[in-house]
Design goal:
single chain, 173 residues, alpha/beta, 47% helix, globular
């Protein structure tokens, strides 16, 4: 029984250490993203440049995607609807496309197919993926006044009640 008690304590201790390590690495990544956001200048495929941290939008969503990624494509309609719903002074979405072949052609095709109404940035040579340490897609990083409020390394339904509720609370704060 003494051994069982020690074993239980060890399991609890290991779980706590694992959680602490996870929180610590999450804080490092959050800090990493916030630092990259601070000096981020994006140029979309139309030639417009955006100094992201100087935008008047309180919420900035950066979404990494590719035209060959089905989960990425499933997100696009809800991002289009989201950008329609909110004025750019409150919310700005940037799509970072990581296609390796026929990038401009694919971006134009997706823009027409989905009616994309937010800037699309062609990430040539994966410079932005590398800068943000993105290793898989889709990835969405949501900033409020330059601070990370959400990170998702999977598809998001931007029209879901849960997401809309979070977004409304971030905009009001």
């Amino acid at each position: 029984t003494l051994f069982a008690g020690f074993l239980s304590f060890q399991i609890l201790f290991d779980s706590f250490n694992s959680l602490a390590t996870s929180v610590s690495s999450e804080n490092k990544m959050t800090s990493h993203y916030e630092q990259k956001f601070k000096d981020l200048v994006l140029s979309d495929i139309k030639g417009n440049s955006f100094a992201v941290s100087r935008l008047s939008s309180s919420i900035v969503i950066i979404n990494f995607w590719a035209s060959c990624c089905q989960p990425c494509l499933r997100e696009l309609p809800s991002m289009v609807a989201l950008q329609k719903k909110y004025d750019s002074s409150k919310l700005m979405i940037f799509g970072i496309n990581s296609d390796e072949e026929e990038q401009e052609k694919n971006i134009n095709k997706m823009t027409k197919q989905f009616g994309i109404n937010f800037p699309i940035i062609a990430d040539k040579n994966s410079k932005l993926l590398d800068k943000f340490s993105i290793t898989k897609i889709p990835v969405t990083i949501i900033f409020k006044n330059g601070k990370v409020v959400e990170y998702s390394d999977g598809p998001i339904d931007f029209e879901s009640v849960e997401f809309q509720s979070k977004l409304d609370s971030w905009i009001k704060i």
